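Handoff note, outgoing to incoming analyst
You'll be picking up this chain. Sequence as last confirmed:
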Amino acid sequence: MSGQRNKFEFATIALFVGIILFAFGTFWQAVAPWLSLKEIPVKTFEDIAENIPPEFEMLKEDYPNEFNNAFPNMGMKEAFIEALQTAKKSYIAEACWHCHSQFVRPVSKEELRFGKVSYPSEYATLMQLPQLLGTRRVGPDLIRESGVHSNDWHIAHFKDTSGVVPDSVMPSYTWFYDDNGKPNKRGLSMVAYMQWLGSWEKGNMYQLARK
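Most recent structure output, in case you need it:
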């Protein structure tokens, strides 16, 4: 009986300690960061849409029918917000973040490949929640993708990846296009998202062209 009671007491203590450690970890990894960051202003989608990249307007000019079908009866700001929200969901659902980081790290001279090291205010928007920092470099970092390639390049790349970048392991996303091969709402939105990433830094000289 004494041995069984000792085992019961040990299991009870272990359970109690486990609960305490779980609560402690939850506080320091979830609650504490929220408490320290909750006063930091975060840009809303309306704030983001105050600066629409010119590439989005070019999408409307180059694909007027497809654009109007994707964003019917919407002003440019409303359409841009809809495009970003659609693309962010697709970016997560398609697991793009598995291969593409959105965080230039202060190691391995990453700034020579992708521009200056990322800074906190780049992520203080609703579009960056949750942040898709990523951990891998299968593909290039995308935090400053805006303007690196044209709209046409992205449209061709999503449709036939290896046809644009022969050694790429990225799959083609044919479902981003309609039966006529023109970009649908998801396709237009993904291009808009690519051209938004880093658009806040346009005009600075550190943006490097990539293949």
